[in-house]
Amino acid sequence: MDWVPIVFVTFKLLALGIAMFFAIKWHYDKGDKGDWRSLLRTGGKMAALFVLLLLCVALLTFVVSRMLGLDLSFP
Fold it and tell me: What is this structure's pTM?
């Protein structure tokens, strides 16, 4: 059971990363052809926003878990 979270989190990050890539590519292909710098800048911003939101969700989960009295210490 210890490997299940590792596999699921890895799969989720991989799936979301691929989905973000294709979403940005689709929007780029749909619009007028801009330069690659703006595409990479937008992709970087989206990746940074995703990581920031992921950290916020993790912090919120930790705070709520502590408020509910759950033991979050490692063995």
Answer: 0.51
How far is residue 28's CA from residue 22's CA, in Å, rounded to a whole number? 10
For 69: left if phi > 0, alpha if psi spans -120 to 50, otherwise beta; the answer is: left
One-letter amino acid for residue 32 of the chain: D
What tens digit of pLDDT does each residue of 7-59 get? Answer: 899 999 999 999 989 988 888 787 766 677 887 888 899 899 999 999 999 99
What is the distance in angstroms between the CA of the first residue and the CA of the last residue of the chain?
15
**DSSP string spanning 9-72?**
HHHHHHHHHHHHHHHHHHHHHHS----HHHHHHHHHHHHHHHHHHHHHHHHHHHHHHHHTT---
The amino acid at 10: T
